[in-house]
Amino acid sequence: MKQIKLPLTEKDRSSLKAGDYLLLSGTILTARDAAHKRLVESIKHQENLPFDLTKTAIYYVGPTPAKPNQPIGACGPTSSYRMDPFVPLLLEHGLKVMIGKGERSDEAKLAIQKQQALYLIVTGGIGALASKRVKSSKVILYEDLGAEAIYELEVEDFPAIVAYDTHGNDLYESKNN
């Protein structure tokens, strides 16, 4: 397991390879379908976002409500392919790290490679364990979306695996060979 401090530098990103096991520490934003749609609309309308995409990792999750004295409820990944229509534009505007589960469309994979971004995966069903790695959570955008709002999470030793690296390597393809 590689200990990784977020946000990642270009050097950090290029050093990671498909199949690397990571423990992420730092800030992660959450976003699902509805939030992605709004983000893309904001970019198209040249609106300022309350965060810098170039220094952001977006985790595809809609967390459950937090229990008393906990920062978040279960926070397992959602299927990443649902965000694929939004990925090229977000990558063009600086996003470099996405976290979710499952394979991506050919278009999304090409955009990830072209922009030298990373796609990390988290095992499905890990929601309760993942929540134990979240130290704090707060809504920072689109509160009206409830669980699909954009949250800022502070994480420590959050487990992830590099699925697509900046060199075009694909963990899913290597597993099939």
Radius of gyration: 15 Å
Question: CATH architecture, please?
Answer: Alpha-Beta Barrel
In percent, how helical is the residue content?
10-25%
**What's the total helix number?**
6
Order of helices and strands: EHEHEHEHEHEEH
What is the CATH domain class? Alpha Beta
- Residue-averaged pLDDT, rounded? 95
Features of the shown structure:
alpha/beta; fumarase; five-stranded mixed beta barrel; 6 helices; 27% strand
Question: What this model shows, in words?
Answer:
With 177 residues, the protein is α/β, with parallel strands linked by helices. It has one domain: Fe-S hydro-lyase, tartrate dehydratase beta-type, catalytic domain (fumarase, Alpha-Beta Barrel). It contains 6 helices and 7 strands, in the order βαβαβαβαβαββα. The chain has helices at residues 10-15, 33-44, 87-92, 106-114, 127-131, 171-176, and strands at 2-5, 21-30, 57-59, 97-100, 118-121, 134-141, 150-164. It has a 5-stranded mixed beta barrel. The protein is globular and about 45 Å long.
